[in-house]
């Protein structure tokens, strides 16, 4: 019997268990899939990446403080009963309970931060076809579900700034971290060449981080650490030319932190030589040198154009300015066919009229994220104008993570919120007691590394604020505790120790 069940699981065939399709392998999707009771549910994860990325550690991996494997957990595991298909969710048929998937095994952008719709519009077709970046249409197949969990996340926000998608580096996935690490070392190697002028050295070693949130600040701190602690010993003649600058359109960085903690971070950066320039609007990022600089060898430098400051030549730009709506949410999660109970539960009847209603997914007008109720079920609203429209929920469809908002709340789009929603949903599904409980987020506080063994900790739920070395110890302890597998719980402190003793690995590969 166990061999039969194993065969059914591997081939994707239905069993007596309910099939729960989970779209996405991020904080929400990976967590809920792992915690579902395998005796009751057949969890099937669909995602273009075959792993879960522990995003708080990506900044460390991008500079060699940790190795890439320490930030990854495979979706397929010998210790897990979770099935997996590598693909992109393409469409959802709520009436027949099927999801159309486009295979993504050969997707060239797997592991990189998505920044926009990856599909090419064919002028001969009325609708954009589902295509990869290389123009080839992936094979489509359908999966049926009993319950659907949408946790596809969001894309990196570029605000339509010219040249950013093509020339900037991001930090949302392990592929991004690898590109940053390689580019950083390439800049130092190019600057070390005897044919490189002093002016070119200053441009190559001018590193710009756009975005003053936790990701931008933590990467700036990690970048400063590797330059001061490791690259200064390898390239001592080049350190005088290097510069790290954080740009932000807002008037201050780390807006989610207490003002004193944010100021402490800014003061620490100033002492360490990291520049912070607020109220700076990026107008363009283009490949090449500023117009006032002449050089026979450009070494793939870039030019940041600011509204007030003009052109600035840089060797690398890391872009971290927030999130934008996932195209799947915009294109596939729109209209809902006529459904009856129990698939659709009306929670707010129409004030007037008794005819057949046309439903659509309810979304936030500003962000485009889908709305859920306090049990994380996808909300729908009757099509039409006016405030008194009928509303309902899809009883077997749930939405978690950055792509969803619990209506009436202002929870931040963080891993903490996503994982808490996933844990709550898995527990409720396992116990089948939805009507007894409502989801509520417990604020556990926020942390940020600011370099030189210092960090910020803003406690939630009445905790106090901590900064400096004590916060750094808590920061490292918290991330080590939150690591999923025993393997990584061992590897992470091991690499911390190795790099402390012998320095970071500065090989390019």
Folded structure, characterized:
- The radius of gyration is 24 Å and the shape is globular.
- It is built from twelve helices and 27 strands.
- Helices cover 28% and strands 25% of the residues.
- Strands 1, 2, 5, 6, 7, 8, 18, 19, 20, 22 and 23 form an eleven-stranded mixed beta sheet that branches.
- With 509 residues, it is α/β, with parallel strands linked by helices.
- Helix 2 runs parallel beside helix 10 and helix 5 packs antiparallel against helix 6.
- The longest helix is centred in the middle third of the chain and has 21 residues.
- Strand 26 and strand 27 form a beta hairpin.
- The chain starts with a helix and ends in a 7-residue tail after the last helix.
- It folds into two domains: 262 residues, FAD/NAD(P)-binding domain; 158 residues, FAD/NAD(P)-binding domain (3-Layer(bba) Sandwich).
From the 3D structure, determine the CATH topology of the largest domain: FAD/NAD(P)-binding domain
Count of structural domains: 2
CATH architecture of the largest domain: 3-Layer(bba) Sandwich
Distance between the termini: 47 Å
Helix content: 25-40%
Q: Quaternary arrangement of the chains shown?
A: single chain
Q: What is the CATH H-level superfamily of the largest domain? A: FAD/NAD(P)-binding domain
Q: Please give the largest β-sheet.
A: 11 strands, mixed
> Low-confidence spans: pLDDT under 50, at least 5 residues?
1-5, 120-134
**SS-based class:** alpha/beta
- What best-fitting shape do the alpha-carbon axes yield? globular
What is the C-alpha radius of gyration, as a whole number of Å? 24 Å
- How large a portion of the residues is in β-strands, by DSSP E? 25-35%
The DSSP helix count reads 12
